[in-house]
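Q: What would this complex look like in 3D?
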Amino acid sequence: MRRLALAVALSVQLAACGGGDATPSDWIVLALTSSPTNLDPAIGLDESSQRLHQLIFSSLLRIDDSLRNVPDLATRFEMQDPQTYVAEIPPGVRFHDGREMTSEDVKASYDRIVNPPEGVVSLRRSAHADIGSIETPDAYTAVFKMKQPNASMLIHFASPWNCIYRAAKLKEDPRFPEKTILGTGAFKFGEYVKGSHWTGERFDGYFRKDRPYLDGYKAFFVKSNNVVTGIVGGQFDAEFRGRTPKESEQIVEGLKGNANVIEGPWVTNLLLTFNTQRKPFDDVRVRQALTLAIDRWAGSQALSKISVLKYVSGLMRPGYEYALPEAELVKLPGFGKDINKSREEAKKLLQEAGVSNLKIKLVNRAIGEPYTTGAIYAMDQWKRIGVETEHSQIETKLFFDAMKDGNFDVLVEFISDFADDPTAQFDKILTKKMSSQAASGHTDQKVEELFEKQARAVDPAERKKIVNELERYALTQAYSVPILWWQRIITNHKKVQGWEHQANHFTASDLVNVWLDE
Amino acid sequence: MADVAIVRSIPADAIPHRPNPVWEFIRKEPLGFAGFLVIVLYFVFALGAVWIAPYDPEAVDFTAMLAAPGAEHLFGTDQYGRDVFSRLVYGARTALGVGILSALAGCTIGALIGAASGYFGGRIDNLIQRIVDIMLAFPIIVLAMVVVAVLGKRVVFGIDVNLIAAIALPMIPKMARIARSSTLSIAQMPFIDAARAAGYGHSRIVLRHILPNIIAPYLIMVTAFIAQAILLEASLSFLGLGVTEPTPAWGLMLSGTSADFYKAAPWMILFPGLAITLAVFAFNLFGDSLRDWLDPKMKG
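A: Here is my prediction, written as structure tokens for the whole assembly.
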């Protein structure tokens, strides 16, 4: 009996000490559904890398919960003219090694993106190609001189990938961010155990006073299907990518009144791309028929109960100021509300095109939600106009090979970005000449002209007009058409407070304002 | 002297009575017969799916999402409003089609390899048996997954031949082992020596004299492997490596987000699970009984 009592007492003491794997109470435990691909934010463009980079690094601007640009490091950011941007950073911003950040660090970081030294990978170089030079008139001012106006430039300055590195370290070794993690963010790097977890501790010298509230975080890399049980079981406090409606219900039910659900649109959609290099998809009537057959409005009502697919919109996120209003959208092929009329028109178009007994090879990734869901829906809708489909679900590598080689009739893909940027959102409807991501294979001068025009229109009203015109034209030509846009449902324990919901899964991960209401 | 045929009548009761083999099987192997009836039922489903299934198994119906079993939908509907019973009936086609074709392919190739190995003996036998050893060292599901992942999908006449190859491959070494051991005993028989003495070639001896004599273990293994193949197809589909949506397939019906609905619509996973279990059970029962019936020495 005495032995048992001793053992119990010892266990209690050990538990109180925290043990090897225990997490201090002011630490948040996160679930990440994949490991980071690269420590360097310029290379690790994936979601997990990005989430971790934001905890460590800072950018000049950032995106707020309305997807607007707001200051991050910069205390003043001004467009002096369409080709000059001035950024002022405050004195006293410190890297995690204690050194002060200056405009030289800003210059070196952007130079690395625009003109990468030999051996350095700059995956987003083309998006920044309009930056001509960067001047540093003083230690806290950086002036960006553009080669030509670029309407998306402000978005790029708020990009979570445009982190500021230490210039001196880059000078020593331009590839140091791939090996060493040194930023100015709210948390210092703790440890990274591949395939297991990543930790970070509060950085006391963080430039926003009294932040962050948390002492640290521990992010576990887990399979997506373990997230729900992990949150319900108390292993994780939060997961910020988003869950399906059913998974959200399971968390709410499992946490018995202690769950907090935040929902909203997502700058991500599911897209159907037609291969215009193959017959009969080179015929606009066939493409229009296939988009006309899809009842997006009914699909939105039903699919949103079982999937993240929810919103009806064109090529811009629903709710974005540049998105086509519903009254205009319903006039475009595939967006009308009278589905019987649309399907009659679809059958007529197929007949006019001389296409009967059409059988489509639909190439999709072997990912369940929402790719399989969207494909099942599209195939069912096409069947209603007499079109049969062979659904080919393949591994991601094979999918991108098929996409590159044009080995498909129709492709299920997506548009996803961290912000509403027409230049980025139009990427998939462009000609091959203009975008490596465009798979449709069409040539269309009007698309190229309108795209280029909107990209250079720095006046918002003018740009909106051109964006709307291009959107109307592109949806009528139907090279790539959205099925539905996604809804983002974040369901966590309600003790996680201060997190701001954003319509993307890349940003809002710095945990600067997050605290735990224990 | 002319030949004289002497005809003598034999009394009817002197001829030994040979019972009807079907009745004999039913009498001696009632469980096996029950399994056989279930298999017949599945065949009826597979062949008559067009007439039996009340709904198009791929038709999405948002007005009937997650409907409970009832008069309108016997086994309820899934998250897309598709009729679960219709999908099960059509799923029998996938299960039996893939199961039978892959079991036949695996057993036939295995029997040929095993017979050749046992007949030739020596270095050839040694080489083949070491390859068989290596193949047997891989877990069945892992081997099948590797084949599917490497070969991808190749549909011929609506059938994914690579999936069939993936399922057949793990069966080859098992059948080869059994065929080899049967061949080793048959090869010692006088009629094989006679065939050799008559100058017949190896292929004629193997194909005409050995293989017909290992037909009993072959049939037994085919029935046993059909059960395994159905299970393997269901497992691969469950893992997303088998047939793809919206094809009705039992394993696929259990996969993906189906598990998310286990509380709201338990019928979505209950009925496909039962269909797989029952099919595997029926083929195993029938296979065991067939083995006992064809080769009573193995009984017990």
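A: To summarize the key features: Residues 379 and 389 of chain A are 6 Å apart (CA to CA). Chain A is about 30% helix and 20% strand.
Q: Very helpful, thank you.
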